[in-house]
Design brief:
Layout (H helix, E strand, L loop, with lengths): L1 E4 L5 H15 L12 H4 L4 E7 L5 E9 L4 E8 L8 H15 L4 E6 L4 H9 L3 E3 L12 E6 L3
Parallel strand pairs: 4-5
Antiparallel strand pairs: 1-2, 2-3, 3-4, 5-7, 6-7
Length: about 150
């Protein structure tokens, strides 16, 4: 498996993101989903990483949107065929490392309460629950977390 910072505007990555959207559509109503679209993922303040299997197929992705005082983890997803191999942890590690390299000290995220595997992953990698941030409202279908990545 390899992880690299790539453009999200590639057919296999677009398909991966579409799979994530379909999955989240089964869990949450539209007003409780806060996904970035493809154009937003291509902005210069976004770090976008792709995990690929040994055959070069996209099996995971994630992004960090860099703001002036924190980064926001977005679009973390590993396809079913890539799960159980540590792909998500490796993606997060690469994203956090690159964010730290550009001066980011704090990562925040919003996820949903029905994504038990994601919550377990975030907690196991040092993320702690917090209240809403930025433009997010308090929503029973949102879980907010953060992690300091630099002192």
């Amino acid at each position: 498996m390899t992880i690299a910072f790539e453009s999200p505007d590639q057919p296999d990555v677009i398909a991966l993101i579409a799979d994530l959207d379909v999955y989240q559509d089964t869990l949450y109503p539209p007003e409780s989903r806060h996904a970035l679209d493809l154009a937003s993922l291509k902005l210069p303040n976004v770090l976008f990483a792709v995990a690929r299997d040994v055959e070069g197929h996209a099996i995971g992705c994630g992004a960090i949107v860099l703001h002036s005082d924190f980064g926001e983890l977005k679009r973390m997803y590993v396809s079913p065929r890539g799960r159980g191999q540590g792909v998500a942890k490796k993606l997060m590690s690469q994203l956090e490392s690159r964010a730290r390299d550009v001066g980011c000290k704090l990562i925040k995220l919003e996820t949903g309460p029905y994504q038990h595997e994601a919550l377990a992953l975030y907690e196991s990698t040092g993320y702690e629950r917090r209240g809403p941030f930025g433009d997010y409202a308090n929503d029973p279908l949102s879980v907010f977390m953060q992690k300091r990545i630099a002192t």
